[in-house]
Amino acid sequence: MQVGIIGGTGAEGRGLAARLGAASVSALIGSRDLARARETVERLRSDGGGASLEAATNDAVVERSDVVFLAVPFASADDLAAAYGDRFRPGAVVVDLTVPMRFHDGAPVFVDVPEGSAAERLRARLPPPVRVAAALKTIPASVLGRLDQPLDCDDFVCGDSPEARAAASDVLSRIPTLRILDAGGLDAARALERMTLLAVGLNKRYRVRSARFRMVGL
Amino acid sequence: MQVGIIGGTGAEGRGLAARLGAASVSALIGSRDLARARETVERLRSDGGGASLEAATNDAVVERSDVVFLAVPFASADDLAAAYGDRFRPGAVVVDLTVPMRFHDGAPVFVDVPEGSAAERLRARLPPPVRVAAALKTIPASVLGRLDQPLDCDDFVCGDSPEARAAASDVLSRIPTLRILDAGGLDAARALERMTLLAVGLNKRYRVRSARFRMVGL
Predict the structure, then answer these.
(1) Hey, which residues 131-150 in chain B have their CB within 8 Å of chain A?
(2) How far apart are CA A29 and CA A14, in angstroms?
(3) Is-contact A199 A141, C-beta < 8 A?
(4) At what angle do helices B11-22 and B34-46 cross, to 10 degrees?
(5) A135, A157 in Cβ contact below 8 A?
(6) N or C: which terminus of chain A has fewer CB atoms within 10 Å of its end residue's CB?
(7) Nearest-angstrom CA–CA distance, B140 and B65
(8) What distance in Å separates residue A191's CA from the closest CA in chain B?
(9) Cβ contact (<8 Å) for B218 and A210?
(10) DSSP, residue by residue, B68-81
(11) What's chain B's Rg over C-alpha atoms?
């Protein structure tokens, strides 16, 4: 099962690439610009953990991957869904990492999405055979990218089908120190995306960049 | 500063009463029915932790308390706001514990609130001099009521003013094993109320009743 990342050179995508590489998961690290993807993979290799990673264009990620992590800004998701919708592999699962948030005068502002969440919006814009999950919404890029630090938190995976959740969970459960929780249907993203805003606010108020969630009693 | 609970005999209110009693916080435990309030306080006393608690009617809670925890079903909040709005003490802080959720065929369903959250809806329905905070939204009643078990989690307090947040936090920070976090403005309740639904779903999926949140990296 081929894994790939669209937007693998951005902060969140690079963090995921680092964690997958450290766990020896074969993954295509995509960028619009192949040179940039190569640069990212080279850097991860020189840090000692990128042997299982391969640089690719976003186009190649879409055409070759069965599980595709979408690690782009929320503002780009619509265009990518339109451009790639019909080009995913049969049975492909797209795992949405986007959060509908923008910064206004330095303060995070939630973007209200008519569909309820960015994940449900993406679902509505992809053809039905492509399945959609959401994951890693609440884990800060800065934490994901610091391989010297354990994640030591939970990731909430939701999806439009048990198959989509299982595909995302199978990949992510290979990352040590991260516990994967089944958060149910895709509408759980309504909670998860708002939790990101909550965590960003806590980061600001408590002057850290590392706030993330762990369930107790579970 | 007098503390009181409207709905102190329901599951969540009783759990809060138990924790406040165990921490020797003087609090009025309110019910529509004084006899029921007395029964609850008697039971907490016989468990050894209710010496600081006093049974009262909800009316007396409103008239005598400076910090009023509203621990009623979401469906009752509108009526209570209408009935008590003008009767709170000057400078009173109402701390909303309600979650806009109902059960449909045994499954939890979120009730979309036009104001964005139950807490903001309450804010809109109370006169401006009454200040509003939200707290304990994400802590299950069953956990709150089990005094033999540490809470071992975080509580996210948000409010319409720093004063409202401080009043709620001052009271709740007297409960051991609970960390109080400043979640900012009242609109943070949009995240917190959805987190409750997420936790209820996790409880169901993982067959527990105790799922609650702790921030890591903070």
Answers:
(1) 143
(2) 8
(3) no
(4) 50
(5) yes
(6) N
(7) 25
(8) 5
(9) yes
(10) EEE-S-HHHHHHHH
(11) 16
C-beta atoms of A202 and B208 within 8 A: no
For the cut 90, the answer to whether the pLDDT of residue B47 exceeds it is no
Name residues whose C-beta falls within 8 Å of residue B9's C-beta, 6 or more positions apart in sequence.
B29, B31, B33, B36, B37, B39, B40
Chain B residues lying within 8 Å of A143, measured CB to CB:
217
Q: Are B213 and B178 in contact (CB under 8 A)?
A: no
Average pLDDT of chain A to the nearest whole number: 96
- Give this prediction's pTM: 0.96
Residue of A nearest to B196 (CA): A191
The pLDDT of residue B23: 97
Interface contact B210-A218, CB threshold 8 A? yes
Burial (0-12, 13-18, 19+ Cβ within 10 Å), B48: exposed
Model confidence pLDDT, tens digit, residues B74-127: 999 999 999 999 999 999 999 999 999 988 887 889 999 999 999 999 999 999
- What token pair was written down for A194? 């708002």
Would the ipTM clear 0.90, i.e. be above it? yes
> pLDDT per residue over A108-123, tens digit each?
899 999 999 999 999 9
